[in-house]
Amino acid sequence: MDHAYPPLNIEVATPRLTLAAATDDLLERLVPIVRAGIVGEGEVPFDDPISLYQESPQREWTWLQRIWAGRSRVSPQFWRLYFVVLADGKPVGMQDLVGREFAALGTVTTFSWLCPSARHRGLGKEMRAAILHLAFAGLAACEATSEAFTDNHASNAVSRALGYEPNGTAWATRRGDPAQLSGWKLTLERWSSRRRDDIRLTGVEACLPVLGIEPAANVAAVAIEKGIPTDIAFFGRAARNRRLAPTRTRAWPRSQGNLSSICHKGHRRQMRDSRISHCGAPRGQDNRSLWRTRQGEYITELLRRPH
Ligand SMILES: CC(C)(COP(=O)(O)OP(=O)(O)OC[C@H]1O[C@@H](n2cnc3c(N)ncnc32)[C@H](O)[C@@H]1OP(=O)(O)O)[C@@H](O)C(=O)NCCC(=O)NCCS
Fold it and tell me: How far is the CA of 121 from the centre of ligand 1 (A)?
């Protein structure tokens, strides 16, 4: 079904599972699993407060209320995308993606759980790989972070296996008691070196304005209009089709007036089909800023520092 609200149309499909946007119908199908319990006797995987520690039926009610509330709290400063994990067509868990000041920072965090009977089969790793693909390939994230209690071996193993690097520790409470969290981070560079080509994204482009993410084509247009020499790498459909491998070309704006004119060597049509997801540093600048600030805000920043 095509929903009027774009985030409800996003889908991420891997050979083993699908992350389907958490519509009310899908949440309803997950209720029996939540009612049966996500947390086993003596397990304390989550920090406080979380509905999954509560007794049923309060557990299901609060769980639904928090998802509904999170779904409606959407701004460029904060958004959370909720997905139901479908394995063999059956809902088995959730995988969320959270962006805070995403347009400025390009960083995301993830949160997930699987029903106990679906664990230890590699699905945890697969669903994290899927959400990372959405973050990096779909939304042009720069870095993904994750946190799990130091004794949450499964979650920490998923991060380690997918190439995250240790990112310090922190403290949180679980069921009221203090416990140490292990932090993890995965940079775009590290993700790119492991990038998979068997994960399919659907419905992402239409979501960008809802999440306050400047469509990259606009960013490029601004750069051209303001006369900023900009390296632009082309990703999107053309790159996915491998007709145009992620390629960098240079826009020489002063002599050129519109977006399509930055295309070269017959790439004009691919350009129209593509979403520009990299706007790099001007020549001579440290290339590291390419990764940190390549969203719309990077251009804004450049505008403040004309050279
Ligand atoms: C975290 C979770 C989603 C991982 O899913 P999973 O399907 O169990 O994980 P996978 O089968 O993909 O295993 C991933 C890795 O974890 C390891 N692993 C899984 N369970 C483990 C355990 N109990 N102890 C040690 N290692 C474990 C696997 O061996 C594998 O490591 P490898 O890649 O080095 O072989 C799942 O365990 C879960 O829902 N846990 C409860 C909720 C939770 O903790 N969420 C995260 C909160 S931060």
Answer: 9
Query: Is 1 part of a structural domain of the chain?
Result: no
Instruction: Look up residue 104 and give its amino acid.
Output: A
Q: How is 146-174 classified by DSSP, letter by letter? A: EEEETT-HHHHHHHHHTT-EEEEEEEEEE
How high is the pLDDT of residue 241? Answer: 32
According to the model, what pLDDT value does residue 215 have? 55
Domain membership flag for residue 69: yes
How far is it, in rounded angstroms, from Cα 223 to Cα 257?
A: 10
Identify the segments of the chain with pLDDT beneath 70.
Answer: 214-307
Tell me if 90 CB under 6 Å of ligand 1: no
Instruction: Give the span between the Cα atoms of 18 and 174, in whole angstroms.
Output: 30
Q: What's the whole-model pTM score? A: 0.79
141 and 267 in one domain?
no
Q: Please give the number of the atom of ligand 1 that sits closest to the Cα of 39.
A: 41
CA 300 to chain centre: 23
Mark which of 146, 172, 207 sits at the end of a domain. 207
Distance 157 CA to ligand 1 centre (A): 6
Structural domain boundaries enclosing 140:
6-207
Note the pLDDT of residue 12. 98
- Residues 6+ positions from 185 with CB-CB distance below 8 Å: 143, 144, 145, 146, 164, 165, 167
Residue at 159 is within a domain: yes
The total of structural domains in the chain comes to 2
100: CA distance to ligand 1 center in Å?
26
Report which ligand 1 atom has the smallest distance to the Cα of 149.
48
Do 112 and 168 belong to one domain?
yes
